[in-house]
Write a structure and sequence with these properties.
By secondary structure, the chain is mainly beta. The protein has two domains: about 1-100, Immunoglobulin-like, CATH 2.60.40.10; about 245-809, Beta Barrel (Maltoporin, Chain A), CATH 2.40.170. Helices cover about 5% and strands about 55% of the residues. The chain contains six helices and 47 strands. The strands form eight sheets. It has a 25-stranded mixed sheet that branches. The protein starts with a helix and ends with a strand.
Amino acid sequence: MKLVFTIVIAFVLGLTASFGQKNMLKGKVLDEAKQAIPGAALTLEGTVRGVQSDLSGNFSMRDIPSGDYILKVNMLGYKEVSIPFTIALQENKDLDITLEEAVVSLDAFEFSVSRGIMGQERLPEVDRFRINAGKKNEVIRVGEINANLAMNNSRQIFSRTPGISIWENDGSGIQLGVASRGLNPNRSWEFNVRMNGYDITPDPMGYPEAYYTPPMEVVEQIEIVRGASSIQYGSQFGGLMNFVMRKPDKSTRFTFETLNTVGSNGLFSTFNYLGGTEGKWSYTAYYQKRVGNGWRENSYFNTDHAHVEVNYAASNRLMIGLEMTYMDTESQQPGGLTDEQFNTDPRSSSRERNWFSTPWFIPALTAEYIVSEKTKLSWKTFGTFAERNSVGFMRPINQEDDMGNRQVDRDFYTTYGSEVRMITEYSLFGKSNTLAAGLRYFNGFIDRKQVGGGDNGTEMNFDLIDGEVFRRDFDFTNINQAAFAENVFRFSDKWLLTTGLRYERISSNMEGLFNIVNGQDQILLPQNTTRNFVLVGIGSEYKITPSMEFYSNFSQAYRPVLISDLTPPATTDIIDENLQDSRGFNFDFGYRGAIQNWMKFDVGYFYLNYADRIGTIAVQDDNGAISQFRTNLGNSVSQGFEGYVEFDPVSALTKTSRFGYLHLFASLAFVDARYGDFATTSVREGEIVPGNLKGNRVENAPRKINRYGVTYRYNRFSVTWQLSDIGDAFSDASNTVLSNAAATVGLIPAYRVQDISASTDIKRRYIFKAGINNLTNEMYFTRRAGGYPGPGIMPGEGRTVYFTFGLKL
């Protein structure tokens, strides 16, 4: 795979020298005072061709087929203009453009609000090939946030997104564990995690854990659509989380950027990026290397990320593209701690032989075709070829490592899928309406090998020693077909309604070796399930003013039966042959908007019903034997308040200032996540004792998730202080307060963590960043792990510092 990347990068670098220009449209974009406007979007109407104006307002569009065109020019805060022109073969046409200032409406705040651009926005009502109207959504503009991007610092990146709970136990930045509305943050598995619109998890229908997270230094924005995304994207209850990578620079043939970071505990990170546009071709490529020792003892990480994207305008209507992403990781896991060990020294570790690695390769082919001025098509075909590997001493943390042979667990993922989407505008009763529809096919295969006999060494080694085999070896296949349609009905300039349907067909099969006992293989009987169902959704928006609106949405959701649900812990356990997917719905009602250019807000109520949750109870057969039975046992409900407000008092009072601008933000959430009727059992003295979790708080769900911050900006300098104030949570559904000896259950205390980050650039070329994470050196933890990477308490990191130097060419 590394050879493939080398070949493609060499191809990308040769683009600028490979294509002559047949003709060219060039010019400059100016305001009414004849000042240059950088970043203006210029597109040829009805085609896939487009560029941006550079820092001097200049633009050029090369290799345009001769003919008649309309050039559309858009820039936030200015009136859109459409300019007809004709270009002949081998003609160089000059076209200077003057834009007039415009009154900013609500949609304009999707991109920017004030002089110190804010990092939290929302998606437009209709965006490329999807409908966002009437849905709770956020856009995190990563490049506009003061944060430790080299380490993918989650609490800083998601600081302005209300209700996001985070597991902060992976200081390497390799994996992301986030959730919302009382759901479990375990590797973000309640979100449908995508990159550039396609899947990057092993199998969103059977094993949705997100082991791959792109480097935040190359992520342009993170798009979050709460559970209302289920119609267009399917699972999960948490909604969609889509990482949008930086696109090819449309304002220049070639740009290069390097960011180099050093920090506490031996941190070194180098990120190098290049991209540009030449005629019909555009390209990007990046490489990141990140190494460090980690905050705790027995911690080490060494990661490599690479990505290449090449796009080609095959015609005025057709754009095709190729993307390839590669990650290789080497991570030493320090394991968990008991409560006593955490209270004594949270940096300590009793596991020096535990290692983890996730090599990941994601190729994707894309195409966009403009059928007409009103109708567009999109096609994405993608795959994942990846592994999840661990080796170590995995017994409870209160047991000393005996330095014997380690346990090896390995997963091999081979998945591929394809999605076709269409979006079209049409008129009905004199109003413009929008229809989005699509088809999806996905095939996922997981080869799971566990409980293998590894060596007794200390280094990363996933090979089995001679004579040893994997005592568990499963094959899991998941095939998913889906079709959806969603429509925006606009009844007036103020009121719109969205309605949608999604049909799903999921076929799953699991079989293989369950265990080896006394030399005899215990084979798991094949488990086949096929189900068909329909999800429905409806939403609405009503504009009170051009910049403020009410919104509401109801969307059904589901959680497919996962590979873990079908895997019995013991051969005596029984899996319900009628095991059903978990079903439920999300409901939102909120009010959002902006006041001129100095305030943004979004406040709302949510209700999440999670029915048919899967669990295990004890049952007794006719002969008196007791077995564990896994089935659908009950439901939970999460409801509460989410609010976000950002305020610029300087702009509100003085409009302009020679002394800079101040931004204050608050991201607040109250989450009441509780079990409803949920049956449980325990076995005491050979007798089954029934129980119920009704009224218990859902595990890993803090009731309070509040984050506050202040950003000061002066010219090209900015500094941000942030406070995360997170409430306590339980680690188990029984709401155990006192921890057990292995520290796998017990209360997760509330905590407060402060961060400070600053950045500046000189002449938009030299970049400097610095920060202190966990300013007051708070000792805290967000997770008690029952297994890997624990077991036990997984501490958050104490105080660390970082410095970044960058250069743009």
